[in-house]
Amino acid sequence: MKHYGYPGWFRMFTGMVEIISAVLVIVGIWNEKFAAWGGLFIIVTMIGAIFTHIKIKDSVKQMMMPIILLILGLVVLLINLEFLFV
What we know:
Order of helices and strands: HHH
Helix content: 55-70%
Oligomer: single chain
Shape: globular
Largest sheet: none
Structural class: mainly alpha
Strand content: under 5%
């Protein structure tokens, strides 16, 4: 995180958000509302990751994983969008 200009605690925070997002998407197999929230958390996290890569001038190749995860999070959210605010 130091390389990206973030404090050390932000690594733990980001990791927890990613774990919570994954759990929500998995639980979303049985309850679509959880999948929608998990997809939304993934989208927000990956937008932050992409902006971080842009900030430090990484190549597009180095941004591919956050871009792919952003697209997958968007797919999960769009499939379950109707359940987000129910």
